[in-house]
Amino acid sequence: MDARGWFRRRSPIQLLVGAATLALLGGALGWLGTARRVTLLVNGRPQEIFTHAASVSGALQSAGFTLAPEDFVQPGSGSPLRGVDRIIYRPAVLVSVQSPEGIQTVVSAALAPADILAAAGVRTYPADRLWADGVPVADPSLALDRTPSRLRLARGRTLPLSIQGGTVLLASSASTLGEALLEAGYQLRQGDAVAPGLDAAFLELASADYRPARPIRIGVDGTTIVARVAGPTVGEALTQAGVPLAGLDRSEPGAAELLP
């Protein structure tokens, strides 16, 4: 059967329905052919989307996301989608910020705690201590794996610390002097002299003294004792080593001389 015969056997309505069907099918195929494929990273998790949107915000909305002003979008939400094959999106969350000034909440998508504190109007100082979701933060300017839901800030202070004949400033917000020394990198060992004591309340001190112990060898009645002492004089070193002078005991160098 030729094409003319086929058309002559069809009614005008059938021909119109057929033409409309072909037009719809062609339009659908054309619409699908113009869809763009974009990789969408939501909180670091990738997903593929197909969109006809002209902008980044349109692509996100077509994927079912409602943008908020505090959300993080890269490229920017108003950027054209042309030439974009990947979109990074982090929805903002409610962050509780606890500081000596009080407790407040901010909406943020930032990963660096310093940025969240800045948004809350909270200033930080070198001696301060910070926790993000209960985990200590060493450097607030570095990005975390995700936006925390809680930040807690403790104010610190600086304390004059006498050590090995000099004075340094010990900055910390630790509760005790021992914790402050450890945080500052001092390796406390047996025999070290710490005044007023490792358990002293750091924030209540006016000054402190730290004398690291050093190893010495002591000859006592033909035997040799090895000890770690922090006393500046021979007499104090012998006392710390457990062999104090008594009665007519003598030492070389003398008890009042500085430890060689």
Order of helices and strands: HHEEHEEEEHEEEEEHEEEEH
Helix content: 10-25%
Instruction: List the strand order in the largest sheet.
Output: 6-5-9-7-8
Radius of gyration: 37 Å
Task: Return the average pLDDT rounded to an integer.
Answer: 81
Tally of extended strands? 15
In terms of DSSP E residues, the strand content is: 25-35%
The major β-sheet equals:
5 strands, mixed
Unreliable stretches, pLDDT < 50, 5 or more residues?
26-33
Number of helices: 6
Structural class: alpha+beta
Kindly report how far apart the N and C termini lie: 120 Å
Overall shape: elongated
Describe the structure.
It is a single chain. This protein is an alpha+beta fold and 260 residues long. Helices cover 22% and strands 32% of the residues. It contains 6 helices and 15 strands. The protein has helices spanning 3-8, 12-33, 56-62, 113-119, 177-183, 234-240, and strands at 36-42, 45-51, 72-74, 86-90, 93-99, 102-108, 129-132, 135-137, 150-154, 157-163, 166-172, 193-195, 208-211, 214-220, 223-229. The strands form 4 sheets. The protein has a 5-stranded mixed beta sheet, covered by helices on one side. A 4-stranded mixed beta sheet has the order 2-1-4-3, covered by helices on one side. The longest helix has 22 residues, at 12-33. The chain is elongated. 16% of the residues are buried. Mean pLDDT is 81; it is low at 26-33.
